[in-house]
Amino acid sequence: MLTLTFLGVGSAFAKRNYQSNALVELWSRSPGIDSVPQETLLIDFGTTGPRSLHVLKDLSTHAYLDVEGQTDYRAIDRVFVTHLHADHVGGIEELALLSHYKFADTSSGEPYRPELISTEKILGNLWSHSLQGGLGAQVGREATLQDYFRLTPVMADASSVAFSMGEQYEFRVFPTDHIRIRTKYDWPSCGLVITDKQTGRSVMYSGDTRFDQVSLGSYMHEADTIFHDCQLVDTPVTVHARIGDLRKLDESIRKKMMLYHYEDAWDSPEFQFVDGEFDGLATAHNRYTLFGEVL
After folding, report:
1. Which of 66, 139, 240, 249 has the fewest other C-beta atoms within 10 Å?
2. Is 213 exposed, middle or buried (CB count within 10 Å of its CB: 0-12, 13-18, 19+)?
3. Which domain CATH number covers 89?
4. How many CB atoms lie within 10 A of CB 163?
5. Are 208 and 85 within 8 A, CB to CB?
6. CB 73 within 8 A of CB 112
């Protein structure tokens, strides 16, 4: 069984719902039976990620994340990075430092190194543009990204499997049209299609993207569940999917689309239509079961 818990569902500047990151869990049977998942994957880990995990560990549903009142980063096996904005990578430095020092193996002294997955360009820029300043120096030596993580570069090409969780669930990576410097996809960002090999059913996780029905429409059509980036408040220039554009999608698409990455005004009366036209607004710290399996 595969589940997804949003650490947050808010925009980069959200103060009420944390930033949009997610925890994917692979279970041998189900979280109702098993107390600890077989494997975990973070989809991004932004500035509010550490605080959100700290709160999540105190819930009975996610108690395995707790060790003596602190977040046990050894419970995080892998991290997938969709792009380099701080609301998606701002917590990785804390994860790296605590994994390296606090959660090093007590017998061998070897640091705990989770797997870090993304495209080659994002991984390279993650170090040089975001992490090197805080992680690049250790006592007596210079450090590299590989000192903290096991790196797995993948292609942003949904025609091939990028990585898997267990033997049943395959993850494919596709590029997203989030920010254009000059042309589409010239600034790297990506989303995910997760497929259950046994049933052929799929889940789409859009990542940050502008409205892009042309490129993403086939994933939307094939998916049983869609978690999609959404901007509720209209602006002349945007790097996210405006709610007005998403409302133009066919009802069959909208009814299986759960929106995330929205602003703090989500509960304003002007947005009450969302629950009627979509599968609703995703909520933080709520465990969603993927592929219709029963908890």
Report:
1. 139
2. middle
3. 3.60.15.10
4. 17
5. yes
6. yes
Domain encompassing residue 59: 2-292
- The C-alpha angle 220, 62, 116, rounded to 5 degrees, equals 60
Instruction: Express each pLDDT in 146-177 by its tens digit.
Output: 999 999 999 999 999 999 999 999 999 999 99
What CA–CA distance (Å, rounded) separates 259 from 204? 12
Contacts with 224 (C-beta within 8 Å, 6 or more apart), sequence order: 201, 202, 203, 256, 291, 292
| pLDDT tens-place string over residues 54-89 | 999 999 999 999 999 999 999 999 999 999 999 999
The CA distance from 105 to 47, in Å, is 27
Strands, DSSP E only, in 120-168? 137-138, 141-142, 150-154, 163-165
Domain count, the chain: 1
Report the amino acid identity of residue 244: G
Instruction: List CB contacts of 49: < 8 A, sequence separation 6 or more.
Output: 7, 8, 18, 19, 21, 42, 90, 91, 95
